[in-house]
Structures are given as C-alpha cells and as structure tokens.
Give the backbone structure.
Amino acid sequence: MADPRILDVTLDERTILWRSADIEQERRIAIYDLLEDNHFAPQRAHADGYAGPYKLHISVEEGRLALAIRRADDTPLETIVLGLARFRRPIRDYFAICDSYYQAIRNATPAQIETVDMARRGIHNDAAELLRTALDGKIEVDFDTARRLFTLICVLHIKG
C-alpha cells in the first residue's frame, strides 16, 4: 500500500557553519510541520513496488542540491540531484526579506510587520513553485511540502 510521505528528514550539518536563533527556529518549525503533514512521492517505480514512507537527507554537494531518498528501514532508494543556479536568487531574496522581517518584529509597528511578512510569504511561495517545477517528473510534492523543503534548502546555504 502506498504511503507517499516523508517520515524523517535530516540536513547535512557539515555544510552549515552557523545559524542564528531565528534561523534555528525556522529550521525546527519547517521540520516539525513537514513531518506532521506532507506529500512526497518519488516518481521512479521500484521493482518491489515500494511507495513510501521515506527518509530524506538533504545536502549540497559540489554546488548541487542532493535529495537522498531512503526506505523507512534506511535502505537507499535513489538520490535526486538538482542544479542550484535557479535557486540562487530566490535564496538570496528570501534571506534578505527574512532579515527585514526579524528586524521589523523587534522595532516596527504591526502594520509594517504585516507588510514585510506578506512580502516574505510571496517570495517563499514563488520559491516553492520553482522547487515543484524543478522536481516535476522526479518527485511529486504538494505546495506546503515544497515550501518547507525550500526553507530547509535555505538553511543549508547559511555560511556565517
């Protein structure tokens, strides 16, 4: 019986040099929300018909995003590799707007915070759609899963 979901997700901690408390909180929330509700269905059929659940390890290797997919028992299934060039600008824009958002939370009026948060959500939504497009034909994910995965991809790009 198919169970197309992620049951565990890890990040390659070797590529993360430093995280602020705000970014660490974003990471924790993204992982928690992802594990609570997600749709993740690799499109490659397996000889034994395995169709989930999956363990996912996300890393950046030689400038590429690697999504290592394993069975629930940790047996490797496949690794999807995506070029990161298409994500550079969305990642940069997302970091910039998040910085503005965290500053606004500390110093701005509620209306200013709401304006920055709307911009942040817009950038995040666009990046999630970009990720869904990049995964088309490789992994089927729903919109919320793509948003949470994009957050985790951003965490891997923090260099200090």
About this structure: The CA atoms of residues 3 and 87 lie 29 Å apart. The chain has a mean pLDDT of 88. The two ends are 44 Å apart (CA to CA). The chain is about 50% helix and 20% strand.
